[in-house]
UniProtKB/TrEMBL annotation:
Coiled coil: none annotated. This is N-acetylglucosamine-6-phosphate deacetylase. It comes from the Bacteria. One of its GO terms (molecular function) is N-acetylglucosamine-6-phosphate deacetylase activity. InterPro entries: Amidohydro-rel (IPR006680), GlcNAc_6-P_deAcase (IPR003764), Metal-dep_hydrolase_composite (IPR011059), Metal_Hydrolase (IPR032466). The keyword Hydrolase applies. Keywords: Carbohydrate metabolism, Hydrolase, Metal-binding. It comes from Massilia agri.
Amino acid sequence: MLSGRILTPSGWITGSIDFSDRIHRIIEGPAASGHTILPGFVDLHVHGAAGTDIMEGGDAGAVVARTHARHGTTSLLGTTLTAKEDHIRRALEGMAGVIAQRPQGAARMLGVHLEGPFLNLQRLGAQPPDVVPARLDLVRSLHAIAPIRVLTMAPEVDNNLLLIPQLAALGIRVQIGHSAGTYEDGVAALHAGAAGFTHLFNGMSGLHHREPGMVGAALAHAEYAEVIPDLQHVAPGALRAALRSIPRLYGVTDATSATGMPDGEYALGTQRVFKCGACVRLATGSLAGSVLTMDQALRNFVELGLDLADASRRLSLYPADYLGEHERGRLIPGAWADIVVLDEALRPVGVYVEGEAIALAQ
């Protein structure tokens, strides 16, 4: 039983929440604490944490899921990078066990976000150059190792656009990203069944009033898109424009192995990256993922001017709905007891994943 100010789908109440692995009851009434109780965060783009990269395979997924759970993330997608096929297979084989059985003290890994290798060489960002045209047989074989829930591709490359309906038929959310495509390419991909955009503004053709680009397609037509709200990848003014344009814009961390670590050199797939303060960069100086955690993303959204309920929805309800996970991302009877408890400074003082209390970092 927890008590405090509770965010429910119908609004705030003061009271208590009774749960085991699932939520049993939410009871309005006096609260024994002044804590704020939100749905656990749902992060659909996570490469690493605690010096560990998903592409390492093995137990990397468990390390990453445990680290992010301590910051309020109760479910996530392990996210790959462009790499040789055998390296991608190794990463998925490592994640398969974590997906099948949640390790103690860890966030629930809901599946895989396959970011690459079906990207445009012109918009790789921090991705290695091992891109290939999309192939249905390759996706099917990877999907058989571990469930691919989200797949990022550049629709303008080769015959990638033609595969979107077939990928969507497998239950995969196809996202447009790392793309040099035009506005028209973006609209065509949405019409073909693409569902969203990967780290909006980053790794895609930008907005110009005579060449709207992929950013223009997203702002004009998207229902969903992910964005990295670390206030490094996207300037506050651009974030505000996206918030006004895309109804269910949601936040992701794009967190790397440098998350939670001191400044220094780390791995991002086969790339070497360097953490300096709040940024992770390649040796060239280009941004290369982030060190963001979802609790910090919440505080950043609030700093940007969002009310707390709206900020919470963009880190829990919207990403859960995007995946069709209707028993997560909300506090209602019957839903999984994925809960984050915050103090007045919006810092986690309690996290519960499917009812399990997570030991927080000191």
